From TrEMBL:
Binding sites annotated in the UniProt record for Mg(2+) 2: 99, 102, 235
Keywords: Cell inner membrane, Cell membrane, Hydrolase, Magnesium, Membrane, Metal-binding
Main location: membrane
Enzyme Commission no: 3.1.3.7
Residues bound to Mg(2+) 1: 79, 99, 101
Membrane topology, as annotated: Peripheral membrane protein
Cofactor: Mg(2+)
The keyword Oxidoreductase is annotated on this UniProt entry: no
Protein name as catalogued: 3'(2'),5'-bisphosphate nucleotidase CysQ
Family annotation (InterPro entries): CysQ, CysQ/Inositol_MonoPase, Inositol_monoP_metal-BS, Inositol_monophosphatase-like, Inositol_monophosphatase_CS
């Protein structure tokens, strides 16, 4: 592997330019995905029983091409490539985790909660991440390390109409209110959701697909996202980077910071929490 682009990658990470460039890529992928949404696009079932569409594949191909052009030689671990070719058995110090379309089930149902996710892992932890929600034309990103988290609504930028929402605005987690609200996957029962929410000090909960859950906690609208069922590392890494930058935390069952590069890139249980 060539490591020649690592100095440039690290320079861009430290300046915050990295996630600005990643946001452009994720938004380009989002524009590619959107025409497939609510279009009755064909759905195939992967070996793990999860759905995949042409939108997932087209978006992943675009992201891989853009990343390889910007930072050649950095290892890329992406959902559809792993589904097709298997997972790499080793990870480098630096690697990308890419989920071109998270929340595919919701996407296929015509729901709005689906996202494009790009994260950079360094020595086992997400150090930069970008999440884009194509349906609402919104992007969340971590800024330079220690620089917080930001959100923008990008649609108007490309229609050529300057409007306030198109600016990057800082976001932050909220202090836990008396009646906290948890976000949970639709993949669990109502009983399980109520129990999980209560375990993490929340009196209410709401079901939401995809990594959008991390972003909604990062911007201070919700309080926790506990997950006991399986996810893959590309489902959570970018959301974790955004949430941590906004002042939140993602913890494994042992209370330690949630880490990456695990066997087959499979996540165990975790909880994402705001303030
Ligand atoms: N058995 C399993 N193993 C690994 N990941 C799983 C899984 N069941 C669900 N997931 C992951 O959970 C994600 C959906 O989470 P949520 O329910 O919060 O929307 C899916 O992302 P994709 O839609 O990208 O496939 C999928 O990767
Ligand atoms: Mg996913």
């Amino acid at each position: 592997m060539t490591t020649s682009s690592l100095p440039i990658l690290d320079r861009d990470l430290q300046s915050g330019d990295l996630t600005l460039k990643l946001a452009e890529i994720a938004e380009e992928a989002a524009r590619l995905i959107l025409p497939f949404w609510r279009s009755g696009t064909a759905v195939e079932t992967k070996s793990d029983d999860s759905p995949v569409t042409q939108a997932d594949r087209a978006a992943e191909a675009l992201i891989l091409e853009r990343l390889a052009a910007l930072y050649p030689g950095v290892q890329m671990v992406a959902e559809e490539a792993v589904a097709a070719d298997g997972a790499p058995t080793q990870t480098d110090d630096w690697f990308w985790l890419i989920d071109p379309l998270d929340g595919t089930r919701g996407f296929v149902r015509g729901g709005e909660a689906f996202t494009v996710n790009i994260a950079l892992i360094h020595e086992g932890y997400p150090v930069a991440g970008v999440v884009t929600a194509p349906a609402s034309e919104t992007t969340w990103r971590s800024d330079r390390p220690g620089g917080g988290a930001l959100r923008r609504q990008y649609g108007a930028v490309h229609e050529g109409e300057a409007h306030a929402g198109a600016e990057w605005r800082p976001i932050a987690v909220r202090d836990r209110p008396q009646e906290g609200v948890a976000l949970l996957s639709h993949s669990i029962t109502d009983e399980e959701a109520t129990r999980l929410a209560a375990r993490h000090g929340c009196t209410h909960w709401q079901g939401t697909d995809s990594s959008l859950k991390f972003c909604l906690i990062a911007e201070g609208r919700f309080d926790a996202y506990p997950r006991t069922g399986p996810t893959s590392e590309w489902d959570t890494a970018a959301g974790q980077a955004v949430l941590e930058a906004a002042g939140g935390r993602v913890l494994a069952e042992d209370g330690q910071r949630f880490r990456y590069g695990k066997p087959r890139f499979l996540n165990g249980p975790f909880v994402a929490i705001g303030g």
